[in-house]
Design goal:
Shape: globular
Helix content: over 70%
Distance between the termini: 21 Å
Structural class: mainly alpha
Mean pLDDT: 84
Strand content: under 5%
Largest sheet: none
Number of strands: 0
Amino acid sequence: MPPLKQGSRPPWVGLGAAVWVQIAAGNSYNFPLYSPSLKSVMGYNQQQLTMLGVANDIGENVGILPGIASNKLPPWVVLAVGACACFLGYGVLWLAVSQTVQNLPYIVLWLALLVATHSSAWLGTAVLVTNMRNFPLSRGTVAGILKGYIGLSAAVYTEIYNSVLHGSASKLLLFLTLGLPVICFALMYFIRACTPASGEDSSEHGHFVFTQAASVCLGIYLLVTTVIIDLFNPSDAVSYTFTAIMVIFMLSPLAIPLKMTLFPSNPNKNLPPVSSSDHLVQGEESSNQTDPLLTPSSSATYLESFHENEDASDIDMLLAEGEGAVKKKRKPKRGEDFKFREAFIKADFWLLWLVYFLGVGSGVTVLNNLAQIGIAYGVEDTTIILCLFSFCNFLGRLSGGVVSEYFVRSRTLPRTIWMGVAQVIMVLTFLLYASGLNGTLYASTALLGICYGVQFSIMVPCASELFGLKHFGVIYNFMLLGNPVGALLFSGLLAGYVYDFEAAKQQSSTCVGVPCFRLTFFGLAGASGLGAILSIILTIRIKPVYQMLYAGGSFRLPSSTSSHS
């Protein structure tokens, strides 16, 4: 599909459609809702259930194949694969929980859950890569919005689960089997590559603020209505009304392209576009055009000193290339477009991966065991805890993008510093969990949800800024491997073993009391502390990159980006 003209409405239509697809991509967050039924129907112990949770995380986050596909195939193909995986995987789980097919082997359900949640990788990659390329000058903001909505998805599904499906796990799995593929097939046409605008303007900023405000209103609404449904058990008519209002909130981002249609503007700008999102790196045939993003600015000084410090011999190399003596292209520098194998051998690549792994790995351990944690601490109905975590996860994802975007533009402060700040707070939160003090469960869950969300919204733009957008899909999905690896080590091996050990001491399959997870929380606190230290090291290392990219107060593409592909 050819790229669309600059300033056209489809980028905002695509962002509005991406909101729905991102919520569909959050289907893996439903595991705490149907896992108790899966455990009771199939007769699993906690360690078996925890290993299913690991399959849930592996499927969601192992997205190397979707990352490669996003560079080779149009977004609608990637979305179609995700929709089919959702149908097949959740279909098998529905057959098991509804007992339509009995005595399915454990390995079959493990693989079915893997396939089902792998749809999240395909759906999330398609919308994130496409929209990051459609809005290349607002990467942190776009990442915060899209990651925020996927964080809200757990609360959306909880609302549907309680008000429409009446707490039925089998009906929830049937909805995931049929409803999500229908949504994806209906919206895939609107999520497509568009030509981004050439510069930032106040109207775009206003549109992003509106989208962020709408998402905050949706989050608050979901939290309030979930508490009302849980405490007062309203009638079906009231519950359905709550769901209808929720749908209206989810449609609100489409008000932007609607407004642009009804009240079109004609800015009469003669500036050429940045580039098509299908051709992020300009070739030699366009080298004689002046890109407004590459005009001289205060970043030029930083760019010169930055490159000189990294490799002084590049000047001689470039002169030799100009004279025809040397044809070999130089390797890219941080801030330019890297191929995956080029990024893979960089120290900053692995530092970012380790920081992300330690942050989300410890957070997802609590998420996967949140229902059991609530029961162990004496909470019979864990619905409110799950909804609270979802809402705070959303706040962390949204605020992480907004706050890091502000400081990176005003102070050229690397985004990774906020991953470190969040992990310091996570250390305190895990110690608070381990203390078992009365009245601290909800506060601990809220703090953890915020800090967990921050890790996502920071990693995404940081990876694109350090290693470019051209191969972003593969690099981003490799970073996501930190989630399932953390789930396997911290949740599957540590939390599951400790829980079953304590339950055996109580001579029961259900563990009750603070000791059920105390040792796990101490281990997670240590992991988060190490992550905070590594984030400080990474921040110091990449500070010159951000001085080069944001020295003028806005994003500047490195001038050498177009010299290699």
